[in-house]
Amino acid sequence: MQTLLNNRYRVIRTLGGGGFGETFLAEDTQMPSNRRCVIKQLRPILM
What we know:
47 residues, mainly beta, Phosphorylase Kinase, domain 1, 4-stranded antiparallel β-sheet, 4 strands, 0% helix
């Protein structure tokens, strides 16, 4: 199963992660060319 972020970006692979979040290489499924992009998903602040 492929991960779809924001019902738009199909994750190809994880590029990295750390304290602030994770970074992914993804394809934009709403663009005709399915162009690739980098997505940073931030972690929520827990108090």
